[in-house]
Amino acid sequence: MIKARIIESGYKTGSPVLRDIDLFIKEGEAVLVTGVSGCGKTTLLLSITGVLKHLLYGYIDGSIRLADLNPLNQQDFYNIPRKIGVVLQDPEKQIAMPTPWDETIFTLENLGYPEEEAVKKTRETLRRYGLIDKAYQHVEDLSGGEKRRLTIASALIHEPSILFLDEPTASIDPWGIRSIREEVKGFRDRGLTTIIIEHKIKYFLDLVDRIVVMDHGRIHSIYENNGVNDTVLDKLLGLGIDSRKAIVIDRERRLGEKLLEVRSLTIGYDKPLVRDIDLVLHRGEVLAIIGANGCGKTTLLKTLIGFIEPLSGEVVCKYKMFYVPQQPDYLFIKRSLEGEVRELYRKTGVDLEAIIDLMPWYERYSKLPPYRLSHGQRRWLSIVIAYTYSKDIILLDEPTTGLDYRLFRMLKKLIDDLRGRGVGFIIATHDPRVVGELADNVVLINSGGAEYIDRWRAVDMLESIAGISHG
Amino acid sequence: MDKPSVGIVFIYALTITLLAFIYRSGPPLVIVALINGLTGFTIGLKKHRFIAVLFLITVWALIINAYFVANTGEPVYVFGSIVVREGMVEAVINISGRLLAIAGAALILVSLYTPLEIIKGLESELKLPKIISFPLAYGLRLLPIMQRDYNEIRYARKQRGYRTIPITPNDIASYLQILVSLAIERAIWTGIAIELRGFHHRKTRYRGLRLKKIDYALITILIIQSTLFLIY
To answer: How many CB atoms lie under 10 A from the CB of residue A154?
Structure first.
């Protein structure tokens, strides 16, 4: 059972993030907490678990009960881990140990389990989550989906009665999402109280009892699962929440001259990862490269730009390319947005005003370090940097990871604007929104090969593999 | 060959770090630097190239700094308009020697054991508090991730037309601000994650030190290095 009455809570006194929260979650209930980025979803999790007060030195004005504990009380806070399991948004930041075995047993060692029992439970848990064969491999060798399973295994090994999942689909491919859906079904069958914090609600609508919608730090509305109809889904979509299956925009686009041609390209590090890739990119075209995590999408982009040598075949291109990594922060050089823009001007000669015009939010944040901008703004800035360097070809690696539908639409607008100016984009992604709303053509990497596929088929494939529940 | 106990290697690395500061200059510092630098980089260079790169960057920054703030005394070398004086040479040798000794001793520790072996060894052999042993081990877990970050930053800088090998203080600052900002963000979330998995309750399972022959050998080498000041 969770009971939260929060009058105000926040990271700094006087700057509340949450207001007027009144939430009651019954034992065994599955609840989806949703809302756009920055609406306070994660702060709610941090408030309910007491982390905001005891670890982040924020403040919570109100009362909270979690099972039979009061997380706002220091002593009870230390006993919270015995009752709950938490899976955070990014496995990279959650995993603290070098191997799946060490990571999983860590929870039991902390909670004082006898060594023999801890070893037995760890072995069983890793087997249940399909990680027993990789128990002693380095976690860096696991795929994104395996890392996510490892964080779930570590959160559940001590059999808690309440489980929190914070954006479990972030950076996960459709195959990983399907596996998480299976897990959530299992939690319900086992009677676990499950709280899923997620803006891609389309993947979980059939698995939860209630949906709590947050907006600007308050509870905007609460829906019982059987009350979710098309009108509600459209309303949520309007708020910027991914409530609907990805749409495919029918486009009749006249593409420009050929910018790049790839002929019989085989890529990989020591051995071939993908063989015989043939593709063409035209001016103004968006080409989506899709496939599961680890299939070779990033390797292909890095080979095209020349960071990795091709194993065979050729890349024919006389135009300039720019690669934007999945983590946009790698591209930043200066300590403020203003400094970054001035440096772009100094280095590329592109008119300062023209650069600023590409960022409608520039004036408000110009003094901030680029790292302190929001997730969406950092992605935006990274594409602007790419454009000032290359007006021809931009390679984007998973540019929509972690973006809700509102931010996706903003990014889409920017990309549409740039392709209207003649830029060709190659986007590595497993996001059906990119395929349906942005791409002109799609290449699927699968089983070590690459083929062009129809956009409608690609969206259907990505959504059905994930197991979309509504829309 | 048997590996020495984690606790002994940790004490060794810690003592070498102290010696690097106690021996401020002269042959004792050079000997300690050479013994540990050569050993550490021989064992650990393949696995932890990143530390070698950081070491070289720091030495380069040190040379630049010494040229501006310690370039005093008799001229030693003259390269056109650049005059290198005794003070600068002395400063570079002394500080590089310290860094080499510390980096070498750290490399010995991190190359011989996995992060978990270190955390468990420190806890069970030295009864080191978890609030010290865990951050140490986690720092090591971060190294491969930081190495990946470093490579990605290199790619990004290459595209933007900047040096990929940091030479000037500006280059170094530009690298560090990304590495540090990412590391801090990771550390905050990992801290939250481990606390929510009961780290507060973690108890030390103390077994004590059980010395082997190789441990005695290492202790002997350490004693020799610690008494060098008697000879010089």
So the answer is: 29
Residue B1's pLDDT is 66
Among candidate residues A440, A423, A338, A427, the one with its CA nearest the CA of residue A389: A423
Which segments within chain B are labelled E, that is strand?
75-79, 82-85
B155, B50 in Cβ contact below 8 A?
no
**Phi, psi (5° rounding) for residue A63?**
-135, 145
In angstroms, the CA A332 to CA A25 distance is: 43
Do residue A81 and residue B138 have CB atoms under 8 angstroms apart? no
Residues A146-162, mean pLDDT to the nearest whole number: 92
Judged by CB atoms closer than 8 Å, whether chains meet at A98 and B116 is answered as: yes
Same domain flag for A266 and A158: no
Smallest CA–CA distance, residue A93 to chain B, in Å, is 5
> Is A159 in the same domain as A40?
yes
Give the CATH number of the domain where residue A292 resides.
3.40.50.300
Would you state the structure tokens that stand for residue A466, as one six-digit string?
A: 């994930």
**Domain contains A287:** yes
Q: How far is CA A25 from CA A19, A31, A184, B40, in A?
A: 18, 8, 17, 56
Choose the final residue of a domain: A239, A267, A283.
A239
Which stretches of chain B sit within 8 Å of chain A by CB?
Answer: 114-116, 138, 141, 144-145, 149, 152-153, 155-157, 159-162, 174, 177-178, 181-182, 185-186, 189-203
Q: Decide which of A239, A273, A289 is a domain's last residue.
A: A239
For residue A379, what are the CA distances in angstroms to A285, A329, A353?
20, 9, 20
pLDDT band at A470 (very low <50, low <70, confident <90, very high): low
How far is CA A254 from its chain centroid? 32
Look up the ipTM and state it: 0.87
User: H or E stretch including B74?
Assistant: none
Chain A contacts of B202, Cβ < 8 Å? 109-110
Q: Is the pLDDT of residue B13 over 70?
A: yes
pLDDT digits (tens, 9 = 90+) for A290-306: 998 888 999 999 999 99
CB contact under 8 A, B201 and A98: no
Query: What is the pLDDT at residue B123?
Result: 81
- Tell me the C-alpha distance between A48 and B158, whole Å: 45
